[in-house]
Amino acid sequence: MSELTIRIGCEADLELLAGLNKQLIEDERHDKLAALLDADQLDIEVMYGNEAAYAFWRSLGFKERSIYMRLER
User: Is 33 helix (H, G, I), strand (E, B) or coil?
Assistant: First the structure.
């Protein structure tokens, strides 16, 4: 397995992430995600308005935990 690198995603990553999401669904390997990361818990952030990602992660059993807010001026 290659080294896992985690970074903040940007708009340029949307196509890649969509492909990965589709692959997870098609292969039905999403339940192995936590085992792969050797974690009992996993927190993710879905950006406001990204209904497809929201539905995808909810379909995997993720539940809302908090509301993350930002003020920009």
Answer: helix
